[in-house]
Each structure stands twice: as structure tokens, then as C-alpha cells.
Amino acid sequence: MSDAAMTVEEREANLKGIGCSRKRTEDARFIQGKGNYVDDLKLPGMLFGDFVRSPYGHARIKSIDASAALALPGVKAVLTAADLKPLNLHYMPTLAGDVQAVLAEDKVLFQNQEVAFVIAEDRYIAADAAELVEVDYEALPVLVDPFRSMDPDAPVLREDLAGKTEGAHGARRHHNHIFTWDVGDKEATDQAFAQAEVTIKELITYPRVHPAPMETCACVASMDKIRGELTVYGTFQAPHVVRTVASLLSTIPEHKIHVIAPDIGGGFGNKVGVYPGYVCSIVASIVLGVPVKWVEDRMENLSATAFARDYHMTAELAATRDGRITAIRAHVLADHGAFDACADPSKWPAGFFNICTGSYDVPTAYVAVDGVYTNKAPGGVAYRCSFRVTEAAYMIERAVDILAKKLAMDPVELRLKNFIQPHQFPYQSALGWEYDSGDYPTAMKKAMEATSYAALRAEQQERRAAFARGETRELMGIGVAFFTEIVGAGPTRNCDILGVGMFDSCEIRIHPTGAAIARLGTKSQGQAHETTYAQILATEIGIPADDIMIEEGNTDTAPYGLGTYGSRSTPVAGAAAARVGRKIRDKARKIAAHLLEVGEDDLEFEVDRFKVKGLPERQKNMKEIAWAAYNNVPEGLELGLEAVDYYDPPNMTYPFGAYICVVDIDADTGVTKVRRFYALDDCGTRINPMVIEGQVHGGLTEAFAIAMGQEIRYDEGGNVMGASFMDYFVPTAVETPVWETDHTVTPSPHHPIGAKGVGESPNVGGVPAFSNAVNDAFAHLDITHIQMPHDHWRTWKVCEKLGLVG
Amino acid sequence: MAKTQITLALNGRQVEALVEPRTLLIHFLREQMLLTGAHIGCETSHCGACTVDMDGKSVKSCTVFAVQAEGAQIATVEGLAAPDGTLHALQEGFAEMHGLQCGFCTPGMLMRAQRLLQENPDPSEAEIRMGISGNLCRCTGYQNIVKAIRYAADKMNAAQKEAAE
Amino acid sequence: MIPGAFDYDAPTTLDEAVALLAELGEEARPLAGGHSLIPMMKLRLAPLEHLVDLRRIDSLKGIRAEGGALVIGAMTTQAELLASDLITGHCPIIQETAALIADPQVRSLGTLGGNVANGDPANDMPALMQCLDAGYVLAGPGGSREVKARDFYESAFFTKRADGEILTAVRVPIPPAGHGYAYEKLKRKIGDYATAAAAVVVTLAGGSCKTAAIALTNLGETPLYAAEASAALVGTPLDKAAVERAVALAEGITAPASDGRGPADYRTKMAGVMLRRALQRALARAAG
């Protein structure tokens, strides 16, 4: 159909812009086995590295003998801390202001810690050689329980910090203390509690879990000694930051380092940080002058890289007898493992945990977080959530249910009573955030109607009676969660990573034919950026999304950005994309005015073209304008059609949602069946509903896994238990519930297109919804809180304790 | 280590190669045959990212030695589309129904689904879920994968019906 | 996870395989489907120097009815068990159990012989074979012998199979027509071993239990044939009292490990729950 014959609606549809369920452009390569993941790379002469890891949780290294390994044919080198120390690379800085051992020097501090790095011709020889490295250890007392970390007689874990009384976040008061971070008005909060009519207090633990993407962490480092250039391909959610860190560590100038993140097989926070495997591969490539590949196996992934959570939260709520929450007080013990490698913006050692006032209008609150060391793997990453936001949401949503039980109120009624009201936005929270927008009552009521909430409660009453009469062995639970997230980090005035502000960027180049390439500072790990960023640009510029290629992950070509995590891609880089589009449109308007020989003010924009007001047949579409941009621009205007935008968001965004989950628990086995799960998400403007729904499905599934079974457990000896997919709970299609999705739309007032981000909402809201459902099944009985994970045996133990077991 | 010669049919093509007895089929495919579609996800035969078709059965190639495939017919995702490039109904279904996100599990999922539809051309939702229960996905929550397989089943059944008429 | 190096042979006859294993001694292992052995090798928990692959030996394949028994070749895969009309007709509990093992891909290659011979108490088929009173045919340099499943297992990964012997077939006495059966398995997810599982076969006569066999999976160092619990059911109408007596006796012989599936006391109680449920379903299926 010729352009002129198309209606406005047809032209709009042709753009496949914002709001359209555009099919993914990424899919063609993935469905044909032509994705390009790190382990798919094969460079000439490439060697393979493998780690020797500690079998002990805490031990002194007496000696390392690599002679047998070095004697094995095909082995090229074995690196130990002694080799890295002269380069000052035996420790590396963490994102949290601590250092982490790259290879253990005198001591190992957690099981499976990296001790030596073997480099060989292929992965088989490397594995054989790793077995041949003899390390003599002297076992030391192991510290596993974070509640014992600051005991006076607790073992000293970090000898490298001896005498260091000042940490990155203030004074350290014990050899295993990392930081104490507090926020809020302590005095006013204490007073509110002293005067409260009703209070609750509960230790709510969010266990240590792991993001476990399907692809483990990997890299290929390749040093070109003649050019003095280092190329690193890796599973990097934040490739630009990796390049900066690599430059600072290696002293190779930043422009001579090429960091490339190719296709990434899921990240979920696991691929934000820098790991010893990356550093060792780089060093090995520099030393040996050939490319070196390192790929984690699954046990290494689960036991050594980037755990999440391990937050032990003592939550208190104060309220009136009729259910008005008057204050929140919380103390958190944060187990950071052996090194503080928590992935948070520099000034936020406990992330944005102070979002823990949730969706409620709470007059005063106070929160303190103590970070401590234990003999466990380092990490503390945001597993499919913004920094410590899922911990905060879990705490407040459980606490509200506990209060509801104490007040004998329906959990929804209590929430409705305490919601921040629509007219209160922008809302200043007691702990310092400015919530951008929201309409919580509407969302909650829509969720109640969609699930026939009142009927569910009535059914639950009947079922409880039937259980009491012995007619059923199943307990029905209804879980409600209403979460508010804080995502899109973030304003550079208070958010940075190692001193680099957390802006993000987009650059576009429109070619003469009207086709374009756009590059961004983020990096998709499955979130469909190649599809959705093009939609934003299509709508803003007026060229079809199909004509815009999106690229990310190559630090040589993409503008600097802080990467993809904390649901920041849409709020930050998506905003940069919208603004780039507007810059293009502004220039296009000048060119159109020149071509049509009218003033700029005489033009109006319509979908994909400028028209002369009052003379609509006089028009220039974007394709024509793009061509003219290369040969016929008004005097004084540069040729070409390019733009770049570095976007520093004025505020975070605050997605929210209402989730309702119905479970049936078999009291004889503890098996919990999810009968129904309804998720209403409000992520502001919806760019691609199909992709949003997919994100919600995935996030809910991860929430289900966390709530119902995931746990990285250590025994008393510091042995990490169950670090394989046999034991670590990743549900199959059979266990995974069917998801019902829904939405409301409350745009963000400060985002150029009103979008808020969605990828992590379902995880943040899902975990408390499942946990509340399991707890709710017992709400009529004498128990206030059941710790996660709600796996079969733990739930059965509750039944046993309550005398429900047959 | 002494190497053994193996001969097998790979996506319909005869292949001869030398492998160590301990070479895993997944490494043989990815590193010697340069077919990197199948992936390594767990290495303990739980995740199914390495699923390929061997003699008409779905197998996890991380738990098969290449020598065990001597004389076998092996099919990988690279051979799923028609020689002229026409996508298989499953490939089309995955794209249409948003059955993938990061794409890492997708080749294994496709190869398993392909065999499932041979075994059961008209599976119910429960049968699909059970049929792909050896394949883990961390992104999609499976719901759209189920739809994608159903899409392919419908398309293939319609084509067959048309051919029969 | 890379296995250590080994030598490999794939003989085409049983005699060759037996001779090879005899010659190589304890450094050699027979390889069936590999789905127990290969992961162990990758974790370097199963050091060995030689694998004798049984896949090319035709005499180890196939299912036939012979002298009141099903004779199932050791290399028969779980998928082949599921597809066999002979088994559907004579002993469907084998299919009920096979369907609960791992996942479709593992069942494509995992074999009955491998499942029962490697001595892992977490495997499902050993307890089922004890329940069915199956015999394992072992071929060695000195000829062939049969060991009852109920006598075969000594402790975890230790069995009566001698180094150099190959388990060639499983002989399952065909249960009487009209028998009731069930295999109940509690697991955390598809692909997991049992938290607890119970296999039950009963026959009825005149409304009372004529014969009963109960065996339990993953509740001790070996699969557990619950002889006393089985005996306690005979002659009863399988009423609540009889079932509870059998449950108590069965629970009494369990000694499960505490692991990620739950602490020992939970797993013992789940043995009881699985047994109750299996008996209930078996009774519903039984004729007479």
C-alpha cells in the first residue's frame, strides 16, 4: 500500500510503537540455535581456565604445590595468590567498598573459595590439572550463624582488615562487623511504640538464595600484546562498569579495553558483579598472550558467585486498635558472607531497604541494618529486584498480615485502611523517599473483584469447618500482597557505582534511507530490549520499529551506561531513548520546515510526518526528512541525523501491584498446591504488553521458587548443601502454577513516557503473596509466622506442631 | 589419551570424528562440530538445555558420551528448520507466543517439544507440561512455552489434515 | 564437571563383555544408560579406568513373558517399559513407577538394569522389584545365577553383584490377575528422588487380603522390603486397623537420612503416608 493511501491508524500500526505487542526481533536467532553466548566463542589459540577451590569453610593455607599439575601435558600455567600479589591483584575492590580475595592468600573464608587458577589447552585437561594441585590446609573454627558473628569470642575472619576500625560505611565495632546503617526518626518512632494501642514484633527471615540463571557466569579474555589492547567477552549485566574496573585494576588505559557482553542467558542479578574468574582469565591472558576462557559449572555458580538475601529482619508495627499503623521499627541482621560484595549503589549499603514502609501512609519509622561477615560465599545481589527491595516488601507485607491477625481484621481491610491515597502523591515517606504516583485502592479493589475475594474467604470458612469435622485433610490459604517497589536507579545526586553516576544513555544514527541504529548503555539478558527500545524510538521519531536496530553490550560502540538490573532499563535508558527521539524530531522539524518552506511553528507532527497546519496535503514524512538530512538542510544546521542523550533521572519510579494467591495445603505431607494466582501490576505506561506479561510470568515463577523451596544452606561445618539443580529448587513446568495477569496504568509523572519498569515487580510482590497464603492457611490457629522456604517438610512440621497431623 | 573414531549422522549428514572416550556428546557437538545451539546449564542431567534427539529419542547430551552415539542419528536445533530455511512450526510457535526470553533453554526446549509432538501429536496442557518437565526455564514461567507447543501442534495437525484431504 | 579419563569398549556379545570385565577387574564398570554413573563420574565420585558399554549387546534387550514371569532385558529403558503392552497387561505397577522416575529424557536412556544394579537406595525400581519379588539374573565368568531383589542390596551402592558380573535380566513373577497395586512417591519436584515412596501389591480373596507385599524407596541404606508389615496385612480386610498396624511396622524399619528433602522423622512419617495412600489405591484396584 502506498504511503499516501494509508490512514493515520494504519500508519500508526505500521510503526509498531509504544503499546503494541510487537513480536520480538531477538527470537529469530535464538529459535535457530544461533544465539551468541560467551561459551559459544572460540578464538584461535584459546586456552581454558579452571579453579582449585577450598573444601573448607575456614582454613589456613599452609602450602600450595602445583608441580604435579604443571607436569601434566597441556597445562600452561597455574596461578596462585603469590603470582597475583606482585601485580596487586590478589584482592579486588567490591561494589560495596570492601575488597575480595581473587585467589586466597593465607586463608580461605568460605567453602569453594578460589585458591588457584589452572590454565590448560582444553577444559578436560584443566579439570584434570585442578585435581592435581595439592593444597595443605589447617582447619579453623567456622562461623556460619550471623547471630554469632559479633560475639566477643567469634573467630576473626578477615585478618586483612586487622586494626581497620573504619569501614566504607562508618565505624566498625567488631572484627566481623561490616557496617551499621540507619534511617528514620528513632526518637519519634520509639515514642509512637511507647504510646501504641497495639504492637507486633516478629523475626522475619529471608533465607540465602541464588539467582541461578540458566547460563552460568563466563568470560573470554584476550590480550593483544602488540597493540596493548585487552578484549573481554563476558556475562556482564553492566559491561561499561566492568571496563572501568578492568582499567583501574590492570592499569590498561580504558580506551584500550574492549568489553563485550554478547547474548546473556539470564542474569537476575547474578551477572552484575566482578568475579575472580574474570580477573584470573584477564591476568592469564596477559601473562600467556593468548585468549583464556573461563566458564563456571553449576555447582560453582550456586556455591561461589553472588548469593542473594540472607536478611534477618526483626519487624515491629505499632497501630491503633482500629487498625491505623502509627509506626514501623525494624532491625536487620544482614549476612554478607566472607567479603562484602553486595551489589548496591555506593551510598546504600543496605540498598533501598528503607522502602519498607511499603504502600502505607505511616507517620514515623526507624530502620537499622547491621552487616556482618560469616564463612559463606560473598554476594548480596538483587535477585530479580531492586536493591534489597524484595526483602523490604517481604517484611512489610508479612508484618501487615501478622498485625491483621492480631487485630482480627481481614488483611485486605487493614491494607485499604492504611494505603497512601491517590491525592497524596507525590508522597514523602517517613524514611525519605518521594513516591511518584499511584492509585492503590483502585488496584486492590480490582484484584478483589477479579478473584471474588469475599467468596474465597467464605469458602475458606467452610473448608476450615470441614477440616475440623475431619471431612478434608486440606487447609486453604489466601495470600494477599500489595507491594510498592522503588526502581530505576537512579538520580546521580545519590546513586553511583564506584563513583560513576547511575545515569543511562541512548545514541541513535538515522541513515539516509530512514533506517536507523540505536545503541544504549544497558544490556538485555532476555528482557527484549532489542524489541522494546525500538518501539519507544518508533513512536517518538515516527519511523517503524522494524527499521531500527538496537545494539547493546559493546563498550566500544555503545554510549556509557550503568547496565541492566534493578529494573532500571526502562526508567533510565528508556527515558534516554525517548529523549533521543525528541531531539531527532526537533531537528527533523527544522528540516521539514525548510523543505516545505514554512516556519517551524506552522508544522504539526502526525505519527510519522510533519504537515503544514491548515494545508495537510503539504507534508514530509520522516523517510523524506532523513534523506534530506544528508543533502538539503537549512543554512546553519549540521548535516546528518543523529542524537545522543545521557539521562539523569530526577527520581526513582515506584511500580506497584496487588497479588492474590490461593493455596491448598495437604496437612499429611505438607505439600502446598497453588490453586490460583492473580497478579495485577501497575508499571505505568505499557510499552509492549506481550513482553510485560512474559516478564510477569517469569518473575512470579522465580517468586514461587524462592517462597516454596529455594535455599542455599550451610551446615555447621561451613559446607554448602545442595548446590546443584537436584537440590536447589528450580521448578519445572509441572510444579509451576498457571498465572493470571492484569493491570492498571498510573504513569510516572517524571518519566518522559510515563513508564516505570516491570521485570522485578512479580518477584517482589510474589514472594510475600505465596508466603502470606501459606501463613494464612494457619491463621485461625496458634501460630503467627512461618519462615520461608515453605517446602514440604517445613510446612508439615507446622502441621505437626499444631496437632493437625493424622 | 587415546582417541576413538566415531561415525554418526548429524542433522542428516554423515560425520566422522576422533574423540576421547570421556568426551561428552554436548562438548563434541559444541566444540568439535561447532553446533553451539544446545547449551550446558546444569551438567547433572536436570536442566535439559543440552537436549538433542538421538535415534528418535530426546536425550540430555551432557550425560551421554560421544562414543555412545557411534552409529546414531543425532538431530540438533540447527537442523530443525527445513533446508530451504522455512521455520518448523515449533520455532514459529515460540516466536508467536513469546515462548522465550533469554533464549538459553530454547534449543533444548524446541528439540524436546519436537519429539513430544512425534510421540503425542495432540497433547493436553498437562501432557505438555509433563512432556517438557526435563527442561528448566528461568525466564518464562513456562506458560507461553506451553502455548507455543500447542500452537505448533495445531498447525501441524491442520497441515496433516489438509494433506490427507 | 568433567569426568576423568578412561578406556572404553562396546562389545557386541555378553560373553565378550563378561570376559572383558573379568580381565579388567575392579577398575572396570559396565555402562548401561549412564544416568546414574555419568553424573558420578563428572563429579569425580566414581573413579574408574575402563567402561564396558553394554548398549550393543542384543541379548540384554527385550521383554518377554516366560514361565509365569516377565523377563525384562537389563538394557530395557524406562521409556520402553512405559511403551510395552506386555507390561501394561501383566504388571502395570512397573509403568506407574517408571513414569515417576526423573524426566522424559532420562527415561529415554535410563535402563531398568542400571536402575536396580547400581545400588542407589534413592532409585525407584529396586524397592518395586522387592515388592514384586523379582529376581536378578547375573552373568559372570562362572556362568549365570539369579539373586532375589530382596536379597541383593547390602548397603548404599554395595550389592551382591560381584565385580566382573553383569546383570542381564530382571525376572518379575507375573502377579495374579486382579491384583491391586500402587506406587506412591513424594518428591520435591520432577527430577528429584523420593522423599519417601512405597510400592504395594495385594491380592484379595473373599474380601480379605490373601497376599501383600510392601517395599519402600529412599528410606534407608538400601531399598526396604517391609516383610512384617506385609505379613500383618494378610488375612485382614485391609481395614483401618490393619493398615495402621502395617504402617507402624513399615515406619519402624526406616532409617532415612536427614537432607534437603527433610529431617529423618519427617521422612519416616512420609513413608507411612505413602504406604497408606498406596494401600488405599491398591485396594480400590484389587478384584475379589
Report on the structure:
The complex is a heterotrimer of chains A (806), B (165) and C (288). Chain A is of the alpha+beta class and 806 residues long. Chain A has 3 domains: 3-35 and 504-647, Aldehyde Oxidoreductase, domain 4; 45-140 and 216-264 and 272-304, Aldehyde Oxidoreductase, domain 3 (Alpha-Beta Complex), CATH 3.90.1170.50; 307-489 and 652-801, Aldehyde oxidase/xanthine dehydrogenase, molybdopterin binding domain (Aldehyde Oxidoreductase, domain 4). In chain A, 28% of the residues lie in helices and 26% in strands. In chain A, a hairpin with a 5-residue loop joins strand 21 and strand 22. In chain A, helix 12 crosses helix 13 (453-468). Chain A is globular, with a radius of gyration of 28 Å. The N and C termini of chain A lie far apart (72 Å). Chain B is α+β, with helices and mostly antiparallel strands and 165 residues long. Chain B has 2 domains: 4-79, Ubiquitin-like (UB roll), CATH 3.10.20; 89-158, DNA polymerase, domain 1 (Orthogonal Bundle), CATH 1.10.150. Chain B has 5 helices and 5 strands. The mean pLDDT of chain B is 97. Chain C is α+β, with helices and mostly antiparallel strands. Chain C has 3 domains: 7-53, 2-Layer Sandwich (Uridine Diphospho-n-acetylenolpyruvylglucosamine Reductase, domain 2); 60-173, Uridine Diphospho-n-acetylenolpyruvylglucosamine Reductase, domain 3; 180-285, 2-Layer Sandwich (Enolase-like, domain 1). Chain C is 35% helix and 26% strand. Chain C is built from 12 helices and 14 strands. Chain C has a 5-stranded antiparallel β-sheet.
Tally of contiguous helical segments of chain C: 12
The biggest sheet of chain A, with number of strands, parallel, antiparallel or mixed sense and barrel status, is:
7 strands, mixed
Low confidence ranges of chain A: none
Quickly name the level 1 CATH class of the largest domain in chain A: Alpha Beta
Which fold name fills CATH's third level, the topology of the largest domain in chain A? Aldehyde Oxidoreductase, domain 4
Query: Which two chains have the most extensive interface, and how many residues on each?
Result: A-B, 56 and 58 residues
Question: CATH superfamily membership of the largest domain in chain A, which one?
Answer: Aldehyde oxidase/xanthine dehydrogenase, molybdopterin binding domain
